[in-house]
């Protein structure tokens, strides 16, 4: 039976052991030689394992030299634990405040016939509102808001058409006076057919 290779976690532990046992600084090439020799880590995977340790803050380094000391690893882990404890306390406090708020609201809402009737009426009204919204959506084009929007769009469109017609009518004689083009050529160029008329 062939020997089993190291898992990713085992490689991380073993590479970290090299740093902690020697308490020294290493270049990547040195680690690629020491990994297989001391810990049985395949040299091709050393770079990837090292990068994962750097990403997790367990190994420090610049682009050339890498290092990790046991005290630093302890400080990193302790920092994570402290952060987790602070978050837990904050969330427990928030949960307690929410629970107290719920209890306060419950105490002000004493069950009575009038309250039960009001809640039932509210539920009924919500259902009615949903039905009416559905009905209004079904009428769609007859919706007063949509009709008003359409009227406004028509008015704006008409105003724009009048403005462009007026601009065309004012500029055409001026253009014809200053150029040697005929009115037919100008209309053809602007794609204005014979049926064109001013909108006033």
From TrEMBL:
<dbReference type="GO" id="GO:0005634">
    <property type="term" value="C:nucleus"/>
</dbReference>
<keyword id="KW-0175">Coiled coil</keyword>
<dbReference type="Pfam" id="PF03962">
    <property type="entry name" value="Mnd1"/>
</dbReference>
<protein>
    <recommendedName>
        <fullName>Meiotic nuclear division protein 1</fullName>
    </recommendedName>
</protein>
<dbReference type="InterPro" id="IPR040453">
    <property type="entry name" value="Mnd1_HTH"/>
</dbReference>
<dbReference type="GO" id="GO:0003690">
    <property type="term" value="F:double-stranded DNA binding"/>
</dbReference>
<feature type="domain" description="Mnd1 HTH">
    <location>
        <begin position="15"/>
        <end position="70"/>
    </location>
</feature>
<comment type="similarity">
    <text>Belongs to the MND1 family.</text>
</comment>
<comment type="function">
    <text>Required for proper homologous chromosome pairing and efficient cross-over and intragenic recombination during meiosis.</text>
</comment>
<dbReference type="InterPro" id="IPR005647">
    <property type="entry name" value="Mnd1"/>
</dbReference>
<dbReference type="GO" id="GO:0007131">
    <property type="term" value="P:reciprocal meiotic recombination"/>
</dbReference>
<keyword id="KW-0539">Nucleus</keyword>
């Amino acid at each position: 039976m062939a020997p089993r290779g190291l898992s990713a976690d085992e490689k991380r532990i073993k590479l970290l052991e090299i740093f902690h046992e020697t308490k020294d600084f290493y270049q990547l090439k040195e680690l690629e030689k020491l990994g297989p020799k001391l810990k049985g880590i395949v040299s091709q995977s050393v770079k990837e394992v090292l990068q994962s340790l750097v990403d997790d803050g367990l190994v420090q380094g610049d682009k050339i030299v890498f290092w990790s000391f046991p005290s630093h690893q302890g400080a990193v882990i302790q920092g994570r634990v402290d952060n987790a404890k602070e978050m837990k306390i904050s969330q427990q406090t928030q949960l307690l405040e929410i629970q107290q708020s719920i209890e306060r609201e419950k105490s002000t809402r004493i069950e009575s016939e009038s309250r039960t009737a009001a809640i039932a009426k509210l539920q009924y009204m919500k259902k009615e509102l949903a039905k009416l919204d559905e009905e209004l959506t079904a009428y769609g084009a007859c919706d007063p808001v949509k009709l008003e929007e359409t009227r406004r769009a028509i008015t704006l469109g008409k105003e724009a058409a009048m403005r462009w017609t007026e601009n065309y009518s004012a500029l055409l004689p001026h253009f014809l006076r200053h150029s040697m083009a005929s009115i037919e050529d100008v209309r053809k160029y602007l794609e204005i057919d014979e049926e064109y008329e001013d909108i006033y």
